[in-house]
Amino acid sequence: MVVVVLVVVLIVIFIVVVVVVVVVVVVVVVVVVVVVVVVVVVIVVFGAAIKVIVLVVVEVEVLVRAATAVFLVVLVVVVIDELVGVAVVVVVVLEVIVLVEMVAVAI
């Protein structure tokens, strides 16, 4: 009887952990997509505004492109950092699953 209760508890814990991981991954993906869309819109609007205001000065456009490139590189680094964080969470969850299986086998 105790073994059955422990197995049921371990299965419930496993399901909760999987649901939490899925929710975290979905939230991170949604945040990344929203950030990318906002950045693209800002770059398009900002670039269009600069081109309309300063048509004569070529250096300003070059500076804007350089700043945009730097901003995109920083954005890629942030996105990679977020994905690495999600990967760490997934690894921890997998370790918990292995531990739960080991306990279940030991019982």
Instruction: Label the overall shape.
Output: rod-shaped
Using only CA atoms, what is the Rg? 24 Å
Mean pLDDT rating: 72
Can you tell me the number of structural domains? 1
The end-to-end span amounts to 12 Å
Strand-and-helix sequence, N→C? Answer: HH
Structural class by helix and strand composition:
mainly alpha
Strand content: under 5%
Q: Major sheet, described briefly?
A: none
Query: What is the percent of helical residues?
Result: over 70%
So how many helices?
A: 2
Q: Work out the number of β strands.
A: 0
Question: Low-confidence stretches at least 5 residues in length (pLDDT < 50)?
Answer: none
Keywords:
107 residues, mainly alpha, 2 helices, rod-shaped
Explain what you see:
Helix 1 (2-53) runs antiparallel to helix 2 (58-106). The mean pLDDT is 72. 94% of the residues lie in helices and 0% in strands. The chain is built from two helices and no strands. It has 107 residues and is mainly α. The longest helix is centred in the first third of the chain and has 52 residues, at 2-53. The chain has one domain (24-106). The relative contact order is 0.13.
In short:
The protein is mostly helical and about 110 residues long. The chain has helices at about 1-55, 60-105.
Helix-strand layout with pairing:
Layout: H1 2-53, H2 58-106
Transmembrane segments: 7-29, 35-57, 62-80, 86-106
Organism: Elysia marginata
Protein name: ABC transmembrane type-1 domain-containing protein
